[in-house]
């Protein structure tokens, strides 16, 4: 069955809750607990025309908040886990109680992935990579265009929902990889430098089933200053 734009919006709302889209108030969204939803560092419409306002509202105010709420609920009966950062939880999944391990994997990963995602985009983004990350990309991939093509191909080929990443591997080298669902590269000992969300909810309202076009247009909003900061931090 095909869905039109209105039906798709209604389905998202029915699936993920009834949080208002009129404005963002973190206290109104997040469940009680140690983890909280970060506000967007720009307005909902700031990334237009590449990512539309409606998508940003649903993506942040419904999808991301659901990950944070579920994460808080998961650790509610484990006070010792509430003192840990989300990074610590994700890096040590095997040590977590079995009854919440999958919930932490899915929702802790979702929170981490989206927190990075909002920060590595900017209305003033785009262009070629700058700083040390720019030089490292050229050294590894030959040119910025070759890097973009390889990254886009990885995102296009990923079956189903997930993320495509630029990571620093265990040898301290850049590589492109993908993960399913909300899995974080941290689970594999990789340090995420930047990632693009290729779940349908990240692009379907504007691009429909044209994931390749979304991947192509996304480069117009990449915040290379933030990506460079994360690269330097990962190397330190």
Protein architecture, described:
With 236 residues, the chain is mainly alpha-helical. The chain is 49% helix and 9% strand. A 3-stranded antiparallel sheet has the order 2-1-3, with helices on both faces. The longest helix has 23 residues, at 53-75. The chain is globular and about 50 Å long. Destroys radicals which are normally produced within the cells and which are toxic to biological systems. Residues 1-30 form the signal peptide. It catalyses: 2 superoxide + 2 H(+) = H2O2 + O2. Homodimer.
Instruction: Give the helix tally.
Output: 10
The oligomeric state is: single chain
What is the count of β-strands? Answer: 3
> Rg, please?
18 Å
Largest sheet: 3 strands, antiparallel
Organism: Microcystis flos-aquae FACHB-1344
Pfam family, one: Sod_Fe_N
Subunit structure: Homodimer.
Catalytic activity: 2 superoxide + 2 H(+) = H2O2 + O2
Summarize the structure.
The chain is built from ten helices and three strands, in the order H-H-H-H-H-H-H-E-E-E-H-H-H.
Task: Give keywords.
single chain, 236 residues, mainly alpha, Mn/Fe_SOD, signal
Topology summary:
Layout: H1 5-16, H2 26-29, H3 53-75, H4 86-91, H5 98-119, H6 131-141, H7 144-157, E1 162-168, E2 174-180, E3 191-197, H8 204-207, H9 211-218, H10 224-235
Antiparallel strand pairs: 1-2, 1-3
Helix pairs in contact: 1-3, 3-5, 6-10, 7-9
């Amino acid at each position: 069955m095909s869905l039109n734009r209105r039906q798709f919006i209604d389905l998202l709302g029915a699936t993920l809750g009834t949080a208002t889209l009129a404005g963002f108030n973190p206290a109104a969204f997040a469940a009680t607990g140690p983890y909280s939803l970060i506000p967007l560092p720009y307005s909902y419409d700031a990334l237009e025309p590449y990512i539309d306002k409606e998508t940003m509202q649903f993506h942040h105010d419904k999808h991301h908040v659901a990950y944070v709420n579920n994460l808080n609920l998961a650790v509610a009966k484990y006070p010792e886990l509430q003192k840990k950062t989300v990074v610590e939880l994700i890096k040590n999944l095997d040590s977590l109680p079995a009854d919440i391990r999958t919930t932490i994997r899915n929702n802790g990963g979702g929170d981490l992935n989206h927190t990075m995602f909002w920060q590595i985009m900017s209305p003033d983004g785009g262009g070629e990579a700058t700083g040390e990350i720019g030089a490292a990309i050229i050294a590894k991939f030959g040119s910025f265009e070759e890097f973009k093509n390889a990254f886009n191909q990885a995102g296009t080929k990923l079956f189903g929902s997930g993320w495509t990443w630029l990571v620093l591997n265990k040898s301290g080298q850049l590589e492109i990889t993908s993960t399913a669902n909300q899995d974080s590269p941290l689970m594999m000992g990789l340090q995420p430098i930047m990632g693009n969300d290729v779940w349908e909810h990240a692009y379907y309202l504007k691009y429909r089933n044209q994931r390749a076009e979304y991947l192509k247009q996304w480069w117009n909003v990449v915040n290379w200053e933030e990506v460079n900061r994360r690269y330097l931090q990962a190397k330190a």
